[in-house]
Amino acid sequence: MNEGDGKQLLLLKPQDIKDVISMATAIDLVEQGYKEAVEFPIINAPRRRVHSKSNVRVSNFPGGVEGLGVIGSLTRADRISHDPTNQDIPYREHPVYLLWDSGTGHLLSIMLGEITEKTIGFSSIMALRTGATSGVGFRHLAKRSTKKVGVYGSGGQALHKLLALKCERQIQSVKVYSRSPENRRKFVEKVERLIGVEARPVDTPREAISDVDVVICATNSNVPVFNGDWIEPGQHIVTVVGSNAALVKGGWLASGRRENDDKTVQRSDFIVTNWRESVESERQAGLIEPLEKGLITWEKIHELGDIITGTFPGRTSDQQITFHANNNGTAAADLAIAKWVYDECKKLGRGVEIDMPFPGQQ
Question: Are 127 and 147 contacting, i.e. CB atoms less than 8 angstroms apart?
Fold first, then answer.
């Protein structure tokens, strides 16, 4: 491209990027993103969040994936509210992806909206990326013989995590617990219709974790959703709530949010996070509180990329209890998925090409 020729960027709107990608593809892309983040770490940085006085929260995820030729950011805003036990999000704005070519610096695309999975469609914010990241954890940490699943939560995050697990293991049955019996019933119907696995609601948190191979937590809870004493040998556990210190500093919560209790981290043979640095920088309560109490040490906590690259061996026995604290998203995952969707949309002729003058010539 000559500098005087100008250039084009592709504007992709919510209707352009829906239902393009499958969960299986997303899992492979997220794995690639985290693997490359270990090999060249300065291309990624931890999530950063800012809050207004009205608790409008803007989250920014900067980074890239060199092997996919992309660098950029995801930024999204939402208005959140809390009571002592639960978080609610009254309004969620469309996320905004900015994709640059990691080799030339050219702006490739502005992408507006939630990237949705082919099978499920839109359900909740960032459900695809979060589910695919859990899927990488399932690939490396769940027992090969996994058949039975217990789920806490009955929303889109839970549904995507189940789909991710089905991509990686031959699951046969699901039990689900959430606070609302009606939500549990509707969720079971969705699981059987969209994922094709037998499912049933249960009436107590204890029932959900009993006699299962994988425990999925996908809630809006501010407090632990199960008792760590209930954990059984061989189980793989994944949580999704990753608190950040601003919620406490802003006066919205008395203490940080968490789905796991202290006993869970104590009983786990090891813990895997997406990004260790965020545990400390955001004071993520599920891990930072037991660390500061001296109940566990940092040596017990590893990163997802270390599992993928083999730097840490991960599960070595079917009796081990493994815990994946899916503690926050990273651009390694978000931009890997977004770049694939951008490339696919170009093939499909989706989006609007915008002519742009070369910088400095406008």
Answer: no
Q: What is the pLDDT of residue 192?
A: 97
Phi, psi of 251 (to 5 degrees): 85, 10
**Beta strands at 70-82 and 96-101: parallel, antiparallel or unpaired:** antiparallel
- The closest alpha carbon to 21, from 339, 306, 282, belongs to 339
How far apart are the C-alpha atoms of 324 and 118, rounded to whole Å?
25
Residue 50 confidence (pLDDT) above 50: yes
> Which letter does DSSP use for residue 35 in this model?
H
Domains and CATH numbers, the chain: 3-120+331-356 (3.30.1780.10), 127-325 (3.40.50.720)
Candidates 52, 39, 124, 77; CA nearest to 332 is: 39
- The predicted-structure confidence for 174-211, as pLDDT tens digits, reads as follows 999 999 999 999 999 999 999 999 999 999 999 999 99
Closest by CA to 130, choosing from 16, 274, 296, is: 274
